[in-house]
Amino acid sequence: MLTSRASETLENTHLKNPLDDSDKAREFVDGIKDRAEAKGFSFQVLKEGESKGSRARLGILRTLHGLVETPCFVPVATLASVRSLDYIDLTSLGVPSVLANTYHLHLRPGDELIRKLGGLHKFMAFDGPIFTDSGGFQAFSLGFGREHNISKIGGVFPDPDRSSSIKAHSLRRSNLTKITGEGVHFKSLHDGGWHFLNPEISMRIQSNLGSDAIMAFDECTSPLSDYDYTKEAMERTHMWAQQSLKFHNPNQAIYGIIQGGWFEDLRMESTEFTSSQPFDGIAIGGSLGENKQDMHKILDWVIPNLDSRPRHLLGIGDVDDLFEGVERGIDTFDCVSPTRIARRGSLYITPQAGGCQKNKFRIDVKALKFKEDPRPIDPYCSCPTCQRYSRAYLWHLYHAKELSYFRLASIHNLHFMLRLMESIRESIAKGTFRELKDHWLGKALPRETSEEISRGKSGCNESGPNGYRVCDDDLDA
């Protein structure tokens, strides 16, 4: 259940929101755009609100290392590598941009070394735009994420009956962070040593990495954090946001991050504050509620109060999330899910091949039923993996622990996501986004609630190619 409390106005924080007046708001945003363009960063909205009730928008994000057509999915290159893939793979797939991890690159191989070697673009031989996060997510993943046994992938939406908190208690692990107003102390999983990040250090690391767009230092809270802690963390994030603006490399574009958990008044306060600061872009992060329906509500609170600056949704990227986020006006997404689940045997399929919300548009290729299956992962897919190899071959590679499996599976899943985003952009341009969303998310089928879908209770019984059934024995549900 989402909680709403009486909103505290921005004046209570002794700050004046320049967006209170429409003329001043335009001048404020125009000033930000002028400064951003001076460093080679700009965002242009080409089309917005292609149908009634939709905020979906088509745009172009320009950087010194090229442009990104939006809406766009940004693959994650945590350690300056999209796992198992190289530059040739990324280029052939048409990957326009990647996001690298500040905290992990600071530890290995070290941001100073990367700076000496010419920055991330030269270090990883990727010449497209690069985003970096601030390290703030690790305040959660190494902190309450471990203590509550919740992760951004899969566990970001606890069960509505709070059974996840019971599970979390039984699987509790040690919290490896110490958070104060000064910053975050992290205990390294590599050497056991303690490391410290604050806004100044995070901005210095990201400057050394040389990314095109960086994130302000923030604290990502747990879905199980209560109102008081979430408010305290949000206020820290706001303080750190101003410090990040002070210390960031002016040649890099910087995104502010809206926090506030799943509490409406906190999200609104953070939206107002973050929008009032001269960030080049706005990101939405942190806990997004108990289920995906809650996430949709949070986006509905936040996005109508944002201006024309680019909007990024941090760490979210399932198929239904992309449609729901785009419809609400999100421009870019990042998520480790496509390559992570590929390595674990989950491969994406389109609706034509039997994909639906219940099976999350995936098959589990490691299942025994695919051992002798001569078909490609998805007969409608044009990726190199589907054009050359069968499910049976991928089953074999997975169980034989052949390293080539990771590459072939990752190529397929990333190709799937990139082509999906391409079709979404085309549908916005043509004014057919709603029809595309209905095709993928099954409006023609009996409609269950978003909450039922998020719990995996929906059914889908469409037929795929060659007459095989969807969500039956043939697919991993």
Description:
- There is one protein chain.
- The protein is of the alpha/beta class and 477 residues long.
- The chain folds into 2 domains: 32-335, Alpha-Beta Barrel (TIM Barrel); 345-467, no CATH class.
- The protein is 39% helix and 14% strand.
- The protein is built from 18 helices and 16 strands.
- The protein has helices at residues 22-38, 87-93, 102-107, 111-116, 120-123, 136-147, 163-170, 199-209, 227-247, 264-275, 292-302, 319-327, 337-343, 384-388, 391-399, 404-430, 433-441, 450-454, and strands at residues 42-48, 57-63, 66-70, 72-75, 98-100, 130-132, 177-180, 183-187, 194-197, 213-215, 253-258, 281-284, 311-313, 332-335, 346-348, 362-364.
- The strands form 4 sheets. An 8-stranded parallel β-sheet has the order 4-14-13-12-11-10-6-5. The protein has a 3-stranded antiparallel β-sheet with strand order 1-2-3. Strands 7-8-9 form a 3-stranded antiparallel β-sheet.
- α12 (319-327) links the parallel β13 (311-313) and β14.
- α8 (199-209) packs across α9 (227-247) and α13 (337-343) runs antiparallel to α16.
- The protein is globular, with a radius of gyration of 22 Å.
- The protein starts with 21 loop residues before the first helix and ends in a 23-residue tail after the last helix.
- Residues 1-16, 151-156, 158-170 and 444-477 have low confidence and may be disordered.
